[in-house]
Amino acid sequence: MFKLLMQTFTEKGLYIAIGVIGFISGLAGIFIDVNSLISIKWLLFVIIISLISIIALLSLLNKIVWEKQIDQKIKIIKYSQEEEIIILKSSQNISINSILTLYINKDGYEKIHAVCIVLNVQENGLISAKVKRKINKDVIDETIVKKGILKTTLPYSVLFEEN
Q1: Are 131 and 82 in contact (CB under 8 A)?
Q2: Contacts of 79 by beta carbon, 8 Å cutoff, 6+ apart
Q3: Global confidence as pTM
Q4: Distance separating alpha carbons of residues 85 and 103, to the nearest angstrom
Q5: 74 burial via Cβ count (<10 Å: 0-12, 13-18, 19+)
Q6: Percent of the chain having pLDDT more than 90?
Q7: How large a percentage of the chain has pLDDT more than 70?
């Protein structure tokens, strides 16, 4: 949270805040005799601080919302080789009978290995998927927990069996 807050208050944000303070002070100096009324000074100070706080909070909220939208990964938790079931955790809404494709990342290259079907969406948020069709002849083992990537898209080549 602190890291995200520090990214919000960048050098550009400081320049914008100084500009807003100068603009409001300039308007106050034109329309209000600031020297005669002390309470107006405090009112302007409170308005400026409030505006800066609102702008900072809206900027922080915007960053949090965009990071949440971007970070929608499907993480592999566990793999059972006997039953060929993969346990997943995902921030996406994945329903029962959804089709997932399993890729293995080898040296920065994602190679498709299998097509999976979602069997159950558990109450604790975990998802169980069964490997239905192996594309690659390689054995799927525990390395998929570290190197496996699951996607909710189905390639054309798999759909029409061009492999």
Answers
A1: no
A2: 85, 86, 87, 140, 141, 142, 144, 145, 148
A3: 0.52
A4: 15
A5: buried
A6: 3
A7: 79
